[in-house]
Amino acid sequence: MKRMLINATHAEELRVALVDGQKLLDLDIERAYREQKKSNIYKGRITRVEPSLEAAFVDYGAERHGFLPLKEIAREYFLQQEQGRKRIQDLVREGQEIIVQVDKEERSSKGAALTTFVSLAGRYLVLMPNNPRAGGVSRRIEGEDRTQIRQHLQLLDIPENMGVIARTAGIGQELEALQRDLEYLKQIWQAILDTAAPRAAPLLIYQEGNVVVRALRDHFSEDFGEVLIDEEGAYHAAVQFMGSMMPKMVHRLKYYDNDVPLFSRYQIEQQIESAFSREVRLESGGAIVIDHTEALVAVDVNSGRATKGQDIAETAFQTNLEAAEEIARQIRLRDLGGLIVVDFIDMESPKHQREVESKLKDALKLDRARVQLGRISRFGLMEMSRQRLGASLEEASSEPCPRCNGTGQIRGCEATSMHVLRLLYEECMKAGAAEIECRVPVDVAVYLLNEKRRPILELEAKTDTRILIIPSPDMVTPHYQIQRTRVEGDSSRAATVAGSDNSTLPARPSRPPNESAALSPLTAPPPPTVLPPLRTPPAPSGPKAKAPAKIIPPEEGILARLVRALVSRYVPVDAATFLAETGGAEPPTSTEQTSEMGTGTQETNSEDRNSRRRRRGGRRARARRSTQGGENTEGTYTTEGFQDKDQLAGPADDAHVPEELVYPGTV
C-alpha cells in the first residue's frame, strides 16, 4: 500500500516521504534555515537594463537581484506597443515596478530567474492570470482522459485575459469541482493585485505553502491509502487544507503517536541516507556512482561483483537493467536537474540497448518533472535533461568544504611547502623587502625548517632579508599567508602579498598546547627544547669510496651444499687472527657478522663447542690455503659464498656519515 509519511517533529527540518510498502519512492525536505522562494510572487523594481543580454535585473528583496529575460516580460508592462523587433531598453526602463514570480531558485553565484507570467497552482487546475495564450492539458494525461478533460475546460467560465492548464489530479473530476478550484485561484489573484497596488517595491506579496501543503496538493491521489503525520500542529494544518480542497479524503489523514520514530517504523532512514552517498550499491553486486560538476551530473554504472548473467554480455545487460530503475529513483530522491549523462556498461547488442532505454523511460514516468531522454550513443552514453524544480538535495543540505573549496582534493604537505618556498624566493628578490613573515600549517613549517632550512638560510644571507616561518595550529594544508614588511626611507610598511583562499578560517580544532610547536624565526637561535640548531657538518675529506655491490650467491644443488657443509664450513676466529689473515682489515661489526656468516654464526652458542671448532677449523683452513696457492689468498669462503676481503672490511675512518635533522616532538 502506498503511504505518505510526514515527519515534522523538528521545526528545523520538515520531511515528506512517499513510500510503497517499505520502498522509498520520493522525498522532499524543507529546512527552516534555507528559505524556499520558488513560486513566490513579489513586487519588484527594475534596477538595470542590459541590452547585451536582452534582460533586466530586478530588485525583489533578496540579496542578489533577479534575472528577468525579455521573453519573460508580459506585454502589459511594455512602455510602448511592440511593432516588429524592439530592443529591451525601448520596452522597459529602470525604476519601473512590476509583479514577478520566482521561476528558478538562486544557485551558487547565480541569482534567481524571474518571470512576469504568473502561475497559480490549485488542486486540479493551474491559473495563468496574465497569459491568455497559455492553457491546455498536462502532457501526462493521455487517451480518453485527455479528451474528456478538454471538454470540461471548454465549459469552464474562464476570463478572456487568463489561461488555464488542467493537472493530472483533475482526471475523472466533475465540472463543479473544476469550477470551484478555478474560482478559488481567481480570488487569490485578485488579492495579489489588491495587496500590490498601494505599496512600494520590493515587497513579498504571495508565499507558496509549506512542504506539507505542497505534498498534499501535488502528490496525494486516490492511490495513497493513508497519510501519517507525527506532529500535532502539522496534522491540524493538513486537516484544514484537505477539508477545503478534498473533503472526501480527510479520513485518510492519521495522526501518528508512537515511541518508534515514523521513518524508522517503515525502515526508510537508510534509504534516505543512500541519497546523500556518492555510490549506491545494487542488489546484484553492481553499483552506480553519481558525481556533480558545474555543467552536468555524471552517472557511472559499474558491474562490481555482479554475476547475474550466464556470460559477460548477459551480466552487463542485467546490471544495466537494474541500474536504469535505480538511476530514475535516485534522480527523484536527489531532485537532480539540468543535463544528466549516464555511462552504462558497454553492450554490443542493439536489442539490449533498446531494452535498457525502454526500462529507464518507464521508470521516469513516475517523475513529476519534465524529462527529455536521448538514446544510447556508440560510446555507451545516454543523455537526458530534467526540469530543475528546486535546489537539489546536495545543494540544500551541504556547503562547500572550507579546506578544499569544494574540489575534493588538496595539495600535500611537500607540494605546499615547495610552493611556499618558491613564493619566498620571489618576494625576497623584490626591492625594499626587509622582513617576510610566513604563516603556514604546523606540518608545513616542520618540513620547511627541517628539510629546507639550508636553502632558506642561504636566501636570507643572499638578499639580506629576515624570514620568519610561523606555524599556525589553526591552519591546515594547503592554506598559508605571506606578509612582507617593506622599508621606505625611515619608515616600514607591512602588506599581505600572498595567501590561499580561506587561509584565516579554522578548518579544524586547535591543537593542544603541547603540540602547538611554536617555532622561532630562522635568524634567531631557537630554544633548545623546541628546535635544535643545525649541527655543523664535518669538513669533506675527499671522495667517498663506493661500496661494492652485494654478491648474490648462486644456487647450489644438494651435493654441493653437502660438500660445502663438510669441508668449507666457516670457522669464526678472534680479532687478532682475523687481522693477520685478511691483511689488516678492520673486523666486521656484529651486524655484518650476523648477515654474512649466515648459519655458521647461529651454531656457535656454546663456548666449549667454539673452542673445539676453532682448533679443528684452523687445521682445515691451513690445508685449504695450501691447496689454493699459499697464504696470499685474497678471499675467503663463507656460508654465503665467496667474498672479497673488501666486503668484509668496515667503512673507512674518514668517511662522512650524513646526519639527519629531525624535529623533536609530536606534530
TrEMBL record:
A Gene Ontology biological process term: rRNA processing
Domain S1 motif: 39-117
Protein name (database record): Ribonuclease G
UniProt cross-references to SUPFAM superfamilies, sorted A to Z: Nucleic acid-binding proteins (SSF50249)
Biased composition (Polar residues): 588-604
GO CC term, one of those recorded: cytoplasm
Cofactor requirements of the protein: Mg(2+)
Biased composition (Basic residues): 611-625
Entry keyword set: Cell inner membrane, Cell membrane, Cytoplasm, Endonuclease, Hydrolase, Magnesium, Membrane, Metal-binding, Nuclease, RNA-binding, rRNA processing, rRNA-binding, tRNA processing, Zinc
Compositionally biased intervals (Pro residues): 523-541
Annotated region described as Disordered, given as residue ranges: 486-549, 581-667
GO molecular function, one term: endonuclease activity
Compositional bias annotation for Low complexity: 629-641
